[in-house]
Design a protein that fits this description.
The complex is a heterotrimer of chains A (236), B (101) and C (393).
Chain A lengths: L6 E12 L7 E12 L3 E5 L6 H8 L7 E6 L2 E2 L5 H11 E4 L11 H5 L10 H14 L15 H13 L5 E5 L7 H16 L3 E5 L3 H4 L6 E6 L2 E7 L3
Parallel strand pairs in A: 3-8, 3-9, 6-7, 7-8
Antiparallel strand pairs in A: 1-2, 1-4, 4-5, 9-10
Chain B lengths: L2 H44 L11 H4 L30 H5 L5
Chain C lengths: L2 H19 L1 H35 L6 E7 L2 E3 L1 E2 L2 H5 L5 E14 L4 E8 L12 E4 L9 E4 L1 H7 L6 E5 L5 E10 L4 H4 L2 E5 H7 L6 E2 L1 E6 L5 H11 L3 E5 H39 L3 H12 L4 H34 L5 H5 L16 H27 L8
Parallel strand pairs in C: 5-10, 7-9
Antiparallel strand pairs in C: 1-2, 1-12, 1-13, 3-11, 4-5, 4-12, 6-9, 7-10, 8-9
Helix pairs in contact in C: 1-10, 2-8, 2-10, 2-12, 8-12, 10-12
The chains are: A alpha/beta (236), B mainly alpha (101), C alpha+beta (393).
C-alpha cells in the first residue's frame, strides 16, 4: 500500500446500520477499512446484498457511517450536517449510475446541466460548459434530443458528461456496465481510463469480468456480507 | 428564451389587460357617479327605498320595506322564495294565473 | 445577475419545464382552478357592485317610513293619522303615499305603482325623463312610466292604455312621460301617478294611503322621533332610513353568502384534489427527486421547486380567473349570476351593473383560493423532498 501519498478516500473501522434499534435492523457494513489514493481506479466486487452500494454511498458522501472514521477528499464525513454533505458531494463526487438515471423527458443538454442549476450558474454558462463536454464525448449532435430518443451508448456518454460537469476529483460508478453489451462496456471502460489519466480517482462496483479484469483497474476489492474479504491488486 | 421569462411575460400581459380593465371600470364609475346626485334627488322625492332589481313579488321588489310575513300570504305552503327561494323555481300555481304577489 | 436570484430562476425554469412535461394534467388543474376563481371573483365583484351602488343611491331615502299593520299584515292607513303626528317636535314634513303593485296578467309582470300628491316634482331636473313631462297636479289620469313598463306594455307610440280595477272595470291612463334610461336602476318598473288615481285604481277607501313618509330636521333625532311615532300610532311599523339601508345590505349579503357557500364547497373539493394530486407521488417522481438530490440538490431546493410549481399554477389561475371575472362584470354585466341576484322576475329590468372593483375583494379571493391551494400542496411537497438521495443507487 502506498502510504506516502495522501489518500483521497479513507475509511477505517466503518460500520453502517439501517433501521438501527428497530425490528428490521440491518448491519450493512461491518468493520470496513479501505484507502483509495488519488488517481487510483478500484473496483468493488461482490454478490448483491454484500454492501457494495452502501460502501459506494459512503464514499460518495450520500450519508455518513454509523460508526467509524470516514474521510473523503480530506474531510471527515461523520462530522458534517446533511446540507454540507450535499454541498460537498456536489463539488467532490461525480456519479454514474447503474441505469444511468438520466431523466428521459429532458433533453441531453438539460440532463447534463442538472447539477449546475442549484449553484446559480447562468443559462449561458451552463450551455458553454455542457457544450465542451458534449464535444468531448461526441454527443454534440444529440444536444436537443430527448434522452428517451437516443441510443444506449449515447445515454452512457451523457451520464459521464453529467458526472463531469462540475469537474469533481472523484468519480463513482455503480454497476456501470450492467445493462450494456460488451462493445459498449469496453467503450465505457475506455472513457473511464481517459478520466483516470486526467488524474481523477475512480471507484466502481461491478461483477462483470470485463470490468474487474480490465487492465486499467488497479485494485479489486471483494466484498461479502458487509465485510471486505480480500483486496487484490490486478496490476503490479 | 428561458421559461421564466415566458412566465413573466404572461403576467405582464395580464397586468396590462387588467390595467386597461381598471381604466374601463373607472370610466364607468365616473359616468355613474355623475348621475348619482340626480338619482339621489329622485330617491328623496319619491321616497324610493329599493333598487328595481327583482320585480317578481312585492317582498322582493321592496325587501327593505316589506313585512316579514309577506312571502307566506298568498296561500298556505307558499314557498318563501326570497332569498333562499332565489335558488328554486317558483311554484307552478303562480304561473297559472294567481297574481304574482 | 445576482447568484441567488439566478439560482431561483434556474429552479423556476426547471419547475416550469416539468410542469410543461405533464401538460395535460397540469392544464386540467389550471383550467379547473381558473374556473373556481372566476366564479368566486365574479360573485364577489357582483355583490360588491350591487351593494355599493345601492349604498350610494339610497343615501337619500326618507328618514322615517310608517306603515299600518293589522293581523300581522300591512293595511291601508288613514291620512287623518298625520294630525296625530303634527304634535311631535322635529318633524319637518309628512307625505302620504300609495305604494302598490299591479299585476299585468297578459304579460305576467308586476308593476310598481306609486301614487303621490307631492307636487314638488318641479325642482326635479328634467334630465331624469327621457321624454315628456311630469304629472300636472290639476289633471287626473296621467302617468309617468319606467322604461321596462313601456317595453312590456308594447305601447309603441300610443299614449293611452287601460288597467283593470279590482272589480274588473277599466281605468284608462295617459302616458305623459318616460323615465330616462340612466334611472332604470330605480324606475324600471315604476308607474307614477297622482294619489287620487292610485286610490281609484286599487279601489281604496277615500282618504286612505299605504304609508307615510316623514322628514326629520335633525338626522340625529331620527331614532327618538321614530320611537315617539310608534307610541302615538299603536300597531304601526316605523322604519328608519338606517334600518332600510341595513336590510338592503343584508339581502345582498345573504345571497352572496349563500352563493359563496356553494362556491366554497367547490373550492374545498378542488383543494382536496390538489392535495391528492400532490400525494399521489409516483415512482417516476420519486426517482426524479432521488436523482436531483444525489446530483447535489438540497432538500430546500426540491421544496422550493415544488413550491414554485404550485405557486405558478395557482397564481396563473388567479390572474387568469380574476381577469375573466372582471370581463364578465365589465362587459357582460355578470350574466351568469344575474339570475341569482335578480330573482326570476318576469319583467327584467335592463340595466348595466355599475362595476365596483376594490382591493378587498381581490385579497379575499386570493385568500380563499391561492392560499388554500398552496397550503394543500406544501405537505406533499415536503414529503416529496424527503426522498433519500441513495434511493437511486
Amino acid at each position: 500500500m502506498k502510504t506516502d501519498i495522501q489518500p483521497v478516500i479513507e475509511l477505517s473501522e466503518v460500520h453502517k446500520f439501517y433501521n438501527q434499534g428497530q425490528l428490521r435492523e440491518v448491519h450493512a457494513l461491518k468493520d470496513i477499512t479501505l484507502r483509495v489514493e488519488q488517481g487510483e481506479m478500484i473496483c468493488l466486487r461482490g454478490p448483491s446484498g454484500s454492501g457494495k452500494s452502501t460502501l459506494l454511498s459512503i464514499m460518495g458522501c450520500v450519508f455518513g457511517p454509523t460508526s467509524g472514521f470516514a474521510a473523503v477528499g480530506g474531510k471527515q464525513l461523520s462530522r458534517m450536517p446533511d446540507q454540507y454533505l450535499t454541498c460537498y458531494r456536489r463539488k467532490t463526487i461525480g456519479f454514474i449510475f447503474q441505469h444511468f438515471n438520466i431523466l428521459p423527458e429532458l433533453t441531453v443538454e438539460n440532463n447534463i446541466v442538472l447539477p449546475l442549476l442549484p449553484l446559480g450558474i447562468s443559462p449561458h454558462d451552463q450551455k458553454k460548459r455542457a457544450a465542451l463536454l458534449m464535444e468531448r464525448f461526441g454527443i454534440m449532435h444529440r444536444r436537443d434530443f430527448q434522452a428517451s430518443q437516443i441510443s444506449g451508448g449515447e445515454l452512457q456518454r451523457t451520464a459521464i458528461a453529467r458526472a463531469l460537469i462540475l469537474d469533481p476529483p472523484i468519480i463513482l460508478a455503480d454497476e456501470p456496465t450492467a445493462h450494456l453489451d460488451s462493445t459498449r462496456s469496453l467503450e465505457l471502460m475506455e472513457s473511464l481510463t481517459t478520466l483516470r489519466q486526467d488524474g481523477k480517482t475512480i471507484s466502481l462496483t461491478s461483477h462483470d469480468p470485463l470490468v474487474t479484469e480490465h487492465k486499467n483497474v488497479d485494485r479489486v476489492v471483494d466484498m461479502e456480507d458487509g465485510c471486505i474479504v480480500e483486496s487484490e491488486s490486478v496490476c503490479s | 428564451m428561458r421559461p421564466s421569462w415566458l412566465l413573466i411575460s404572461f403576467f405582464s400581459l395580464f397586468i396590462v389587460i387588467d390595467i386597461v380593465f381598471l381604466c374601463v371600470h373607472n370610466g364607468r364609475r365616473a359616468e355613474f357617479d355623475a348621475t348619482v346626485p340626480s338619482l339621489n334627488s329622485l330617491v328623496a322625492q319619491m321616497g324610493l327605498s329599493d333598487l328595481a332589481l327583482s320585480t317578481e313579488a312585492r317582498y322582493t321588489r321592496h325587501p327593505a320595506l316589506t313585512d316579514p310575513v309577506a312571502p307566506f300570504m298568498d296561500h298556505i305552503g307558499a314557498i318563501e322564495h326570497f332569498p333562499s327561494g332565489s335558488f328554486m323555481a317558483p311554484s307552478s300555481v303562480r304561473k297559472v294565473g294567481m297574481p304574482n304577489e | 445577475m445576482n447568484n441567488s436570484v439566478q439560482k431561483q430562476l434556474n429552479i423556476l425554469d426547471y419547475g416550469l419545464q416539468s410542469l410543461w412535461r405533464k401538460k395535460f394534467k397540469n392544464l386540467c388543474v389550471f383550467f379547473i382552478f381558473t374556473l373556481v376563481i372566476f366564479l368566486l371573483a365574479s360573485f364577489q365583484c357582483m355583490n360588491t357592485s350591487l351593494t355599493r351602488t345601492a349604498e350610494k343611491l339610497l343615501l337619500t331615502v326618507p328618514d322615517i317610513t310608517i306603515q299600518q299593520l293589522s293581523a300581522g299584515r300591512q293595511t291601508a292607513m288613514s291620512v287623518e293619522t298625520i294630525k296625530k303626528l303634527g304634535t311631535i317636535f322635529g318633524i319637518t314634513e309628512i307625505n302620504p303615499r300609495i305604494w302598490g303593485y299591479y299585476f299585468d296578467e297578459t304579460n305576467g309582470a308586476n308593476y310598481t305603482v306609486l301614487g303621490t300628491d307631492d307636487h314638488s316634482f318641479a325642482p326635479l331636473q328634467l334630465d331624469l325623463l327621457e321624454s315628456g313631462q311630469y304629472l300636472k297636479p290639476e289633471e287626473g289620469g296621467q302617468v309617468v312610466l319606467g322604461q321596462a313598463v313601456v317595453d312590456n306594455l308594447a305601447l309603441s307610440g300610443r299614449r293611452y292604455f287601460s288597467f283593470f280595477r279590482p272589480d274588473l272595470t277599466l281605468m284608462s291612463f295617459q302616458q305623459v312621460g318616460v323615465f330616462a334610461e340612466k334611472t332604470n336602476l330605480l324606475t324600471a318598473d315604476l308607474i307614477l301617478m297622482s294619489l287620487e288615481d292610485a286610490g281609484d285604481l286599487f279601489a281604496m277607501q277615500k282618504g286612505y294611503v299605504t304609508d307615510l313618509l316623514v322628514t326629520v330636521g335633525n338626522s340625529n333625532e331620527i331614532q327618538t322621533i321614530a320611537a315617539k311615532i310608534a307610541e302615538k300610532i299603536p300597531g304601526s311599523r316605523v322604519l328608519t332610513s338606517a334600518q332600510i339601508q341595513k336590510t338592503y345590505q343584508a339581502i345582498f349579503g345573504f345571497r352572496s353568502g349563500f352563493g359563496a357557500a356553494c362556491l366554497l364547497a367547490s373550492l374545498a373539493a378542488f383543494v382536496i384534489l390538489a392535495f391528492d394530486k400532490g400525494l399521489g407521488f409516483s415512482k417516476e417522481d420519486q426517482r426524479e427527486v432521488g436523482i436531483l438530490k444525489i446530483l447535489g440538490w438540497q432538500t430546500g431546493d426540491i421544496m422550493r421547486l415544488r413550491f414554485y410549481e404550485s405557486l405558478v399554477t395557482s397564481l396563473c389561475a388567479f390572474v387568469f380567473g380574476m381577469t375573466l371575472a372582471w370581463m364578465h362584470i365589465l362587459f357582460f354585466d355578470g350574466g351568469l349570476f344575474r339570475p341569482v341576484f335578480l330573482g326570476w322576475s318576469v319583467l327584467r329590468p335592463s340595466f348595466d351593473i355599475v362595476p365596483f372593483i376594490q382591493l378587498q375583494d381581490i385579497l379575499l379571493v386570493f385568500a380563499f383560493s391561492v392560499l388554500p391551494y398552496l397550503t394543500a400542496t406544501i405537505i406533499p411537497a415536503w414529503r416529496a423532498s424527503m426522498v433519500r438521495a441513495d434511493t437511486v443507487i
